[in-house]
Amino acid sequence: MFQLDDKFLQDVGLGSLPDDQKKMFLDHFREQLELRVGTKLSEGMSDAKLEEFEAFIDRKDDKVNTWLAANVPEYEQDQIYQQLKAGAPEQIPQNVILAEYASLKWLGLNRPDYRDVVARTMDELKGEIIANRDAILGSGQVDQSAA
Q: By the 8 A CB rule, do 37 and 53 touch?
């Protein structure tokens, strides 16, 4: 998908930020991206659907397991699950992997356009950064309204 790293900062013209500012800016950008994507994805959804998804985010094991049993009972054979499990660091508990997998499957069923929403939102935020990069670089501080 995309990486929020030094290359991203170069792409938006912020590669010259001091190192201590880079992490702070990337963390802020990630927070803004998650907030905006979440807001857009939740538009028009019922409270019940939102609560269902929140159970995955909150890692409510009983709800995750119930949803998987009802919607993807043979998840262990799913290539997405296998990739998540294989790519997870050893210390990551199984319930975390299951919650992540369930959230991806849920999004695929309930918001099949979620990847497009993420890409559009990412492009919007990048445009805002590029438009404000001189102010961001000139201030020496990450402008909280720029991203």
A: no
